[in-house]
Each structure stands twice: as C-alpha cells, then as structure tokens.
Design a protein that fits this description.
Number of helices: 3
CATH topology: Nuclear Transport Factor 2, Chain: A
Number of domains: 1
Low-confidence stretches: none
Number of strands: 6
Distance between the termini: 70 Å
Largest sheet: 6 strands, mixed
Length: 155
C-alpha cells in the first residue's frame, strides 16, 4: 500500500514542478508585457488607472512620496496643457516572483526621451533605475510600490 502512494508521488511530482515553472514563466511574460504596455501609453489616464493599485506608494527620483490619486490628478492637468509628450522605454529588465507567484518585483532602466527646448537637439534623454513591487489582485497585476532613481550622469 505504501509503495503505491510512493509511486503516485514520484509520478505526479515532475508534473507539478513543470506546471509551477510554466505558471511562473507565464507570469513573468505577462509582467514584462504589462510594463512595456504601460511605458508605451504613459501619457494615458486609463493606463495609469489600470497599472497602479489604489494603495500605491510612489517615491519619485526627486524624493516626493505620492499615491495613485496624485498621479491621476497630475495626468488630468498635464493632458490639458501638453503638446509634446515624452517617449518612454525600458531595458535591463529583471523580474522576480515571490510566494505563490502573487507578488513580483520588477527592476529596469527607464529611458525617457523628452522634447528639448534647445534649438540644436530635438530631444533630451534621461535615464532612471525603477523598481516596482506588484501584487496580483483579482487576476490582474497592480503596482503597489514604486521607486525611481535618476542614474548618475543622466541630465
């Protein structure tokens, strides 16, 4: 009788391990896709509303600590006065999953191409290290904490 259970255990264990690795791969892919979607649509109010958790803690590179409502309020004001929008992208992306894959940390280098006021160049490039902590809420990943740090030497 014990041998039967032992045999079932050894047969099902590899399947469970494979399922867990597959699930983690799916979550990592989903998080990376979410990040790129967010960066591509960073000027959009609805994008921010979807991306950030209601209880977000965001620490900017200037040292300001704000929440989701502050970000959304700023977007409403900025969208009324904005003719030229920045273009954002990210690279050097690292994603770590924790627990039962319902908590994740994303670290990456943010590249911001900003309209320049200089006549000699059309854009100004700034780079930041960003780290976001995500929680899966109701089947959707949401950023609950965010830290941005300007990379030394970046204007």
């Amino acid at each position: 009788m014990n041998m039967k259970y032992l045999l079932i255990f050894f047969i099902t264990l590899p399947m469970l391990l494979f399922y867990n690795q597959s699930s983690q791969s799916d979550d990592i892919e989903e998080l990376e896709t979410l990040l790129h979607w967010f960066l591509d649509n960073a000027a959009d109010y609805d994008t921010h509303n979807r991306f950030w958790a209601e209880d977000l803690i965001y620490t900017s590179s200037a040292g300001d600590r704000i929440g989701k409502s502050d970000i959304l309020s700023g977007l409403r004001q900025d969208n009324q006065n904005s003719d030229n929008e920045a273009i954002y992208s990210g690279d050097q992306i690292q994603i770590r999953l924790y627990g039962d894959s319902d908590i994740a940390v994303i670290a990456f280098r943010l590249i911001a191409e900003l309209p320049s006021e200089s006549v000699s160049q059309s854009t100004e490039r700034m780079t930041f290290y960003n780290t976001g902590t995500f929680v899966k809420q109701d089947g959707e990943w949401r950023a609950v904490a965010w830290q941005a740090t300007q990379i030394p030497g970046s204007p």
